[in-house]
Amino acid sequence: MLQIITQTMAAWVIPAFIFCSLVYAFFKRVDVFDTFIEGAKEGFATSVKLIPFLVGMLVAVGILRASGAMELIIIQITPILEIFNIPGEVVPLAIMRPISGSGALGIAAEILTSKGPDSFIGRVASTMQGSTDTTLFILTVYFGSVGIRRTRHALAVGLLADFAGFVGAVVICNMVFR
Q1: Which residues lie below 8 Å from residue 87, measured CB to CB, with a gap of 6+?
Q2: Which of 141, 138, 130 is nearest to 172 (CA)?
Q3: pLDDT digits (tens, 9 = 90+) for 28-60
Q4: What is the CB neighbour count within 10 angstroms for residue 163?
Q5: Where are the domains of the chain?
Q6: Contact 97/154 with Cβ under 8 angstroms?
Q7: 137-to-49, 51, 100, 107 alpha-carbon distances in Å
């Protein structure tokens, strides 16, 4: 029953959000099309500024994976995670997700190919992919592109949010799919 409710809500969340946004814009007398076009122009300009930071971040992620540091970290923490019923296969995704979206997507695709999208591990990986963000990527690329040098607590808060997303994904998948 919970799965049916979750699927129904998931199917209607985005259309409901779009509808509510359009209704709100109508009552506030906002020209939606012109606002959309203006945002698209700004988005393109921002993406051009992001290219150097993106290249730097991708090189750093490549070095991390090629050096074997990722595998060393996974070997060290997998036994601890098994105590909490966290599948060891999602550990690389949990580590990579705050660093690189494309690297995390590759790991998630690998998990889905080997374990299947309807497996428990596949569902945990998919939920983690959707409930966490690329914190280090955001800090280096977006903050760097607009010239923010002092990030204050952004790193700690971002990593804490990623950890909460990881724990939430595991807990919810254990409750719903086990």
Answers
A1: 81, 120, 121, 124
A2: 130
A3: 999 988 988 988 888 888 778 777 776 776 677
A4: 13
A5: 50-177
A6: no
A7: 14, 12, 6, 17
Biggest CA-to-CA distance, the chain: 57
Percent helix, strand and coil across the chain, each rounded to 5? 85, 0, 15
Give every CB contact of residue 5 below 8 A, 6+ residues apart in sequence.
none
Q: Considering only residues 149 and 29, tell me which one the structure prediction assigns the higher pLDDT.
A: 29
Give the pLDDT of residue 15: 93
Q: Residue 124 in contact with residue 135, Cβ under 8 Å?
A: no
Structure tokens at 159: 């990593």
In this prediction, residues 153-163 reach a mean pLDDT of: 91
Separation between Cα atoms, residue 29 and residue 38, nearest integer Å:
16
Question: Does the global pTM surpass 0.70?
Answer: no
Q: Which residue has the tokens 């051009």?
A: 48
